[in-house]
Specification:
alpha/beta; five-stranded parallel beta sheet; globular; 14 strands; Rossmann fold; 11 helices; hydrolase; single chain; chemotaxis; disordered C terminus
Length: about 350
């Protein structure tokens, strides 16, 4: 089945580039190009696209306002195309929170970079077409959970990809301020992970920060792996230091969920809890299996609550997932697995 795509961008040159990139795949047909949201709105009505690529910053109604209207009136898969600027990154994160399926930096650079970015854009558009988009904007933040005593060496490791931004806002927003430390690999361009951590930090009771090489991990803090160039691992004799290291792609990614999970398995073993959230592909499946074999508790997000049931399915089929749970139930399940048996839903 051919995927019908609508390209929305105020730059004619960018519209042409995106159209050429997407049209190179026989499974994708670009049915229209729109220079601004009002034109795009009429094209959506007449052309009925399966996926929209949407610019972040446009004259008149900006991409964020247009996305809010789309998700409220006619929910459909949207892939945000952003420039690599601080404002572009911040707005893109907000768009993902509001329900955009994925994001990508606007293609640029050498022929090799354009080819790489083009392949990634096509993959994201095809994954978006298969995603489960829900009406009404962002997922409702799960109810905050009261704190409780966890085992002292407990640690939480989380991997996510497509749909993971929205899921992490809901999951981390429910975590108590005294929860065990959390290490997170979310597949995302490197220019966006800092803005993502800052936005989460404003919304959550726990501290959320972009991980730094050599930083000690402490309770009540979540660490987002920087995107793009380095893998994130545990280091130190007790596995209490963050290590960011260069290396080849693993499972198609850098940072890779598999790298993080294997590190947690070897350093923390049965003291750890692993959770694999929504995302396309299989990154994290083998690492989560290593965690389970090391005695860790392992959880997978349920098909019904995933935007893309790819990574959790791969982990489930491999035997890496001890239990599947909905996104709304995931925070309590993670805390219970950490030994916070007295944790209860707050008022």
């Amino acid at each position: 089945m051919t995927i019908r795509a609508l390209v929305v961008d105020d730059s004619a040159a960018i519209r042409a580039v995106l159209t050429r990139i997407l049209s190179a795949d026989p499974e994708i047909e670009v049915v229209g190009q729109a220079p601004e949201p009002n034109t795009a709105r009429e094209m959506i009505k007449t052309l009925r696209p399966d996926v929209i690529t949407l610019d972040v910053e446009m004259p008149g109604m900006d991409g964020l306002s247009f996305l809010e209207r789309i998700m409220r009136l006619r929910p459909m898969p949207v892939v945000m195309c952003s420039t690599l600027t601080a404002r572009g990154a911040a707005v893109t994160i907000e768009a993902l929170r509001l329900g955009a399926v994925d994001c990508i930096a606007k293609p640029s650079g050498s022929a090799e970079e354009l080819a790489r970015d083009g392949a990634l854009l096509r993959a994201k558009v095809k994954a978006a077409a298969r995603s489960a988009v829900r009406p009404g904007g962002p997922a409702r933040t799960t109810t905050p959970i009261a704190g409780g005593r966890a085992r002292e060496d407990a640690l939480i490791a989380i991997g996510s990809s497509t749909g993971g931004v929205e899921a992490l806002f809901a999951l981390l927003g429910a975590m108590p301020a005294d929860c065990p430390p959390i290490l997170i690999v979310q597949h995302m361009p490197g220019a966006f992970t800092g803005s993502f951590a800052e936005r989460l930090n404003r919304d959550c009771r726990i501290t959320v920060e972009e991980a730094r090489d050599g930083a000690p991990i402490v309770a009540g803090t979540a660490y987002i792996a920087p995107g793009g160039e380095r893998h994130m691992e545990l280091a130190g004799t007790t596995g209490s230091i963050i290590r960011l290291r260069t290396g080849d792609l693993v499972s198609g990614h850098r940072p890779s969920v598999d790298v993080l999970f294997r590190s947690v398995a070897s350093r923390r073993g049965a003291a750890a809890v692993g959770a694999i959230l929504t995302g396309m592909g299989s990154d994290g499946a083998e690492g989560l299996l290593a965690m389970r074999q090391a005695g860790a508790r392992t959880l997978g997000q349920s098909r019904e609550s995933c935007v893309v049931y790819g990574m959790p399915r791969a982990a489930m089929e491999l035997g890496a997932v001890e239990k599947e749970t909905s996104l709304s139930a995931m925070p309590e399940a993670i805390l219970a697995a950490c030994g916070m048996r007295q944790a209860k839903v707050g008022a």
